[in-house]
Amino acid sequence: MVDIVVMRAISSDNEAHAKEVRKALDRNKVAGLNLISSPGSGKTTLLVKTIQDNPGLKFGVIEGDVYTSRDAERIEKTGAPSVQLNTEGSCHLTASMIETVLPKLDLTKLDYLMVENIGNLICPSAFSLGVHKRVVLLSTAEGSDKVLKYPQAFNTADVVLITKMDIADVVDFDVKIVEDDLKAVNPKIEPWRVSAVTGEGLDRWYDWLKGLHA
Amino acid sequence: MVDIVVMRAISSDNEAHAKEVRKALDRNKVAGLNLISSPGSGKTTLLVKTIQDNPGLKFGVIEGDVYTSRDAERIEKTGAPSVQLNTEGSCHLTASMIETVLPKLDLTKLDYLMVENIGNLICPSAFSLGVHKRVVLLSTAEGSDKVLKYPQAFNTADVVLITKMDIADVVDFDVKIVEDDLKAVNPKIEPWRVSAVTGEGLDRWYDWLKGLHA
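YS: structure for the whole thing
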């Protein structure tokens, strides 16, 4: 049974709630990640694959969705503890929402808290969730022009993953454009190419995750 | 040179502005359409193809984007008049924005006003723009589960186009799921399958457009 919590966005004092979330994570030595992307970029698929490929790492997941618990049901099959957070119309998660559902996960038993944000490249970028790192996914199917069109997602990212590399040729994706645009928007990082289907690039992603606990 | 207008969302009295937009369109016998989808679903590609394939129809385009004028530049190459509307952070267009930029297009010379909304399946659904029809695009690459996850986009649609049908097999897309979910959310319509690459399904879309002026 997936645990579903329905919440609406309250924007007041997001930073105060973010600090409380951070304190709870740090107290329990849990690394928190905020996963942001368009609908259908492969956030849940990457999470499922990451959990399955790393049985030695203990993941907990907060699944954000406007409606439905389909994603949390997919996570549940991996055996990782998960909470479905439904916003019923709201276009992003807030730190207050995370703070509210956090007690549903036993942080003492986790290494990582993975928060899958609402499928939206715009609004989620404006709200800190109190976690440590922000990971932005861009699928090759979305096209090569998205970094400059949605700069606020990419310039606040700690990691950018280009997903669905296995279909890059079919959808005529030009990784060079993304690399160049990212240099303009967020020169500290370069995009990592991954595919949950072929496994391309996943080792680097897993190494980075493990490094958060090094 | 692409004409760029920067605007921020003001939510007050959206319906009053929508009425003014509708009056201007009706006075000039222009059919107005609001195109909504995730980033990278193919709104601009469909618009370019539609304009190119129908030289007898007079299209004007309002291109909504958070930043950049890339889409309006693509439209401009077709010869159709276009205005780029940049929201600089806002996640959707409003009727007030449309009303403000409308004088930049000579409505007496148009049959259709195509408004490409911000790439976002959530927020744009909540704002009427005063146009006549709402068209929602879902690309096969986004996955088959999106209708129930973003019902507010699909239950307010007059037409749902499943785009990128040419890669449906590669991305393991199941059209039956979308058809079934749409029956639950918006039983008046069924999704139309299209591909701007192969031309699949475009005749039906063009016939429907022409029917708006029948």
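YS: worth flagging: The mean pLDDT of chain A is 95.
IM: good catch. Also Helices of chain A lie at 14-27, 43-53, 70-76, 95-101, 146-149, 151-154, 175-185, 202-211.
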